[in-house]
Amino acid sequence: MLNLLTAVHERLGENGGTLRVLCDAAEENLRLDILATVDPESPPLAPPDMEYERSLAVAAALLDSSGASLEERPDGVTVRLPRQSAP
Predict the structure, then answer these.
(1) Where are any strands of DSSP class E within the chain?
(2) For the chain, does the N or the C end have fewer beta carbons within 10 angstroms?
């Protein structure tokens, strides 16, 4: 997750805004949103570059074995983690 937090934060630039992490527990999965909120006085969010795309690809590969999925959004990423059944 640190890789994703860092990648989304880098798109904000120096003092460019706020990194938000939201968590929503649904019946079938846990949804984690990592979002960049740009300050009104700052330049717009930087477009995804090759390093950003590579970070997302690495994170997706690491998450895949757990059944989790990664969705790219214009302002960040969403990770969906399957809920584990109680034994």
Answers:
(1) 17-25, 29-38, 69-73, 76-82
(2) C
